[in-house]
Amino acid sequence: MFTPKMGRRSFLQAAGAAALCAAAGHREGAAEGFRIPTGLYPSYVDEKTGVTVLTLTPGGSTNSIVYQTHPMWLDGGKYLFFTSDRSGGGMAPHLLELATGTVKPVPLKDAGHNTLSWNTPFLYYVQGDALGMLDLVQSFQGTAEPRIFGKVPDGVRSLSGTISVEADGSTLYLGAIIGDNDRSAIYAVDTKTGDTREVTAFDFKVGHVQANPFTPGLVMFCHETGGDAPQRVWTARVGGDGPAPFYKETYDEWVTHEAWWGPDRIVFTVWPYDDRHKGLPHGIATATLADGPQGKMEVLAQYPAWHTHGSPDGKWVMGDDFDRNLWLVHPEKRERRLLTQGHLGKGLKTHPHGSFTPDSRAVLFNSSREGHDTLCCALLPDDWESLPKAD
Questions:
Q1: pLDDT by residue (tens digit) across 125-149?
Q2: H helix and E strand count, the chain
Q3: pLDDT per residue as tens digits for the range 87-101
Q4: DSSP β-bridge partners for residue 283
Q5: Is beta strand 355-356 parallel, antiparallel or unpaired with respect to 335-340?
Q6: What is the C-alpha separation between 364 and 55, in angstroms, rounded?
Q7: Are 202 and 238 within 8 A, CB to CB?
Q8: 138 by DSSP, 3-state: which?
Q9: pLDDT digits (tens, 9 = 90+) for 235-282
């Protein structure tokens, strides 16, 4: 955990490469009809906030949420995609059927690079040099077979920065290291024909590739350093002129954990890495493409935030902190209130990596409160003002 006595670079060494970045699940099936059967799952009431918290993965297994940058719900929210060691053999993809609590492993081996589609039941994955896809709903019912549609482009030294699928499912994007000194590229692969083209290339390590959940041909990615980059967030368009800063940050801004929050808007955090920077704008922020790279960010909640995510209906933003508290932010009022706390288990350093459910009525997150990593869901109260207001 960062303390005021730590220097900026010593914090980088202590934190290492912080886990991927944050993003929005805007198009993960229609929210209409989405419902969590609260009586099916173990639950408790947070003693400080009064919020009901459900445990979606009870038992002693290790479970991990899909990062907020990528979709995790499918078939209108009937299924939740996550990783777990519950089936033996290490961490592997699983599906939870929300209505029954039934969990089944996804029948794929050695497919560590994978992503759900935003709008279809397909999982896209890399297996060796092959690119494949699998209908997860049919797979859950035991009737699906994977289909190989392409291959990793020649000249790729290693994949980097996750894979991501186009809003309409037509294109899979790959981030890759292609040369010395972390020279990188992003490739677009047609999911029907396997045809591949280079979208853009640049002289830094690519990270956190995120196809826009609404707009085909628009990709966001970052300069991956494991900490503070000189210019963190970039975009590229298929057939465009090359990469461009999304929001051109200043030297004093440690921008991180960016996430799509609409067709042209993102949320991200600005980390106040020392006492001086706590006196500058920081916390959960937002910016739009319409404002251009020289546009100004808007701070939605000023506190030492680390990860963030915006609700699909645009009404809420959530953020965590290094004490593993989850905060609910009212963007218009620029006000935050405590949603749930107490999710740091003894000897564990689990990050919540929270994200909103498709109906914007709950936040799904990692918790080690029970002494192991599990997936929890905090239900938003009907009365937002019933939550404790930040000091």
A1: 999 999 999 999 999 998 889 999 9
A2: 2, 30
A3: 998 999 999 999 999
A4: 270
A5: unpaired
A6: 10
A7: no
A8: helix
A9: 999 998 789 999 999 888 999 999 999 999 999 999 999 999 999 999
